[in-house]
Amino acid sequence: MEIQYLGTAAAEGLPALFCDCEICKKARDTGGKEVRTRTQSVVDQKLLIDFPPDTYAHAIRYSLRLGQIQHLLITHSHMDHFFPVELIHRHEHFGHNAEGMLHVYGNAAVEKAFYDAVLIERFKVHPLDDAVRFIRLDPFADFMADGYHIIPVPADHDKREDCLIYIIEKDGKCLLYGHDTGMNLSGRAWECIFSHQYDLISMDATMGRMKTDGYHMGLADDIAFAKILEEKGCIRPDTC
Question: Do 235 and 118 belong together in one domain?
Fold first, then answer.
């Protein structure tokens, strides 16, 4: 299993769109790796995770053939993770030779954002019925997608919706994708996480050196999280 990070920034990006602080000014002046787009990843070029406004830029930068991807996992409905209006372009009118159906997985808030975006009047001449299908996820309700065993686990993030992190398994490998969450997970969520051993743990570090009580993690939280998993036997010396 291979993961490629396409974007790693928070909602405002780096440099932030309207910001003129010293960090953002330096990022603009330096360019290159100092410029960070909104968070998105792809697993084995088959499983796309999140769909931010920067998806088009990612496809160009990394020469991605997004029309060949048939599974898209969404963590939650915040705009930096889900910008659904772009999905209309998977219709044959805009995206020729896209392969099969794109299955979009997410919670109820993501589902509402999806239909609010693609069912507007001017798109009705290009219905997505044969191109994109939404599948609502319930926490802990595991499913299979193209040979991947996926478990949606409730995150510690926005209490107004069932934000999700994901456990992804295939061919004896296991990935914990834990972006946009704090450590105040439910007992059942911890139990589910503890029931696996991971080859890779990908965690939220939005707060940097700062400490916050939930919603996001910082570096100290990431270290504490990894230590808990180590104590529970969920990670090995070669776990990334």
Answer: no
Q: 194 and 78 share a domain?
A: no
Burial class (CB in 10 A: 0-12, 13-18, 19+), 22: exposed
pLDDT digit string, tens, across residues 36-91? 999 999 999 999 999 999 999 999 999 999 999 999 999 999 999 999 999 999 99
Q: Which long-range contacts (CB under 8 A, 24 or more apart) does 205-212 make?
A: 206/10, 206/180, 212/182
The set of long-range contacts for 223-226, using a CB threshold of 8 Å and a minimum separation of 24, is: 224/183, 225/178, 225/183, 225/201, 226/201
Confidence at residue 210, expressed as pLDDT on a 0 to 100 scale: 87
Is the omega angle on the peptide bond into residue 15 within 30 degrees of 0, that is, cis? yes
| 161: containing domain | 139-240
Q: Quick one: pLDDT at residue 213? A: 84
Rounded to a whole number of angstroms, the distance between the first and last alpha carbons of the chain is 12
Q: Give the CATH number for residue 24.
A: 3.60.15.10
Q: What is the value of pTM for the model shown?
A: 0.96
Task: Give yes or no: residues 121 and 153 share one domain.
Answer: no
Backbone conformation region of residue 6, classed left if phi is above 0, alpha if psi is from -120 to 50, else beta: alpha
Q: Quick check: 47 and 73 in contact, CB under 8 A?
A: yes
Are 119 and 172 found together in one domain?
A: no
CA–CA distance, 80 with 49 (Å, rounded to integer): 12
pLDDT tens for residues 105-122?
999 999 999 999 999 898
Number of domains in the chain: 2
For residues 99 and 201, membership in a common domain is answered with no
Alpha-helical (H) ranges within the chain are 22-30, 55-61, 108-118, 187-194, 219-231
